[in-house]
Amino acid sequence: MLHPPRHFVYLDAVARAGSIRKAAEKLHVASTALNRKILEIESDIGTPLFERLPRGVRLTAAGEVLITAVRRSMADMRSAESQIEQLRGLVRGTVRIGCAESVATDLIPGTIAHYQQTHPGVQFQIVSGVTGNLAASLMADDVELILVHDPQPSETLRVISAIAQPLCAMLRPDHPLAKRATLRLADCQKYTVALGDRSFGSRRLLDDVMARSRIALQVALEASTVQTLKEFTRQTGAISFQFQIGTLNEVRRGELVSIPLSDRALAHSQLVLAARAGRMLPIATLSFMETLVNRLAALPG
Q: Are residues 183 and 259 in the same domain?
């Protein structure tokens, strides 16, 4: 197994922990020894990399530049190791994915389970969250792929696959609107609704439509997780909103009904699979990526 230089490991650990003591505990080294090593690195470079604070440390501007290069070097080493394994006829390693909560409870686990039937040597690390945070994790090489809704276009983002994902209203089957083929957001004004908090991309879309159209929704609940919104809809009959991919499980089980919203601003969202532009991905990630692209292509449109 290829190991990155120890000073790379030390710098990365201290930057992530924000504390020399906490980083030392994680690395199982003495904090005095770790501090001495950091001071040596700073002396060699000729500038401080960390600002010493009363309760820890924080990267300086020079430290931010260096840690970006360190993490990319570490990621490239993992990729090289994966390619060497491939030359030996093996596909193994760890695939790190950041994904929207809408795909974290059904699509991604199901795709991984299918993939591991033929690739048992590949492990996975999954992080779920909102698009902006996951895109930042991708740029920091904390994850290798992201599957998110409507990321901001960027030269540093390489789009691998993108599929249409309309925003849908989720209702109980006994709701008065449940038989409709499509809905406009204005149709929901007469009924109580549950909304994701303002970190949700879907919430920003809804807020924009409400502001432009002067729609006033009867909000009974705001929540920070999709599962809370779905459960509130099941128990109270309030309308909640979710991208189509995140509704498939409940619709399949007959628990909820999913109806696309036809408002122009809500009907053209995309689910995007992306990597950092210029990054050399490990073989295991490339292998799984092909499976995931095929799975996305097979989704109902």
A: yes
Q: Sort residue 278 into left (φ over 0), alpha (ψ -120 to 50) or beta.
A: left
Q: Is residue 127 part of a domain?
A: yes
Q: How far apart are CA 238 and CA 219, in angstroms?
A: 9
> For strand 167-171 and strand 257-260, is the pairing parallel, antiparallel, or unpaired?
antiparallel
CA within 13 Å, CB half, 275: 15
H-type alpha helices, the chain: 6-17, 20-27, 31-45, 61-87, 101-104, 107-116, 131-139, 201-213, 226-236, 248-252, 283-297
Count of structural domains within the chain: 3
* Percent of the chain whose predicted confidence (pLDDT) is above 90: 74
Is 182 a domain residue?
yes
Q: In which domain, by residue range, is 200 found?
A: 167-266
Q: What is the pLDDT of residues 150-203, one digit of tens each?
A: 999 999 999 999 999 899 999 999 999 999 999 999 999 999 999 999 888 899
DSSP 189-201: TTSEEEEE-TTSH
Q: Which amino acid is at 70?
A: V
Q: Calculate the alpha carbon distances from 176 to 118, 166, 223 in Å.
A: 46, 21, 24
Question: pTM of whole model > 0.90?
Answer: no
246: in domain: yes
Same domain, 17 and 31: yes
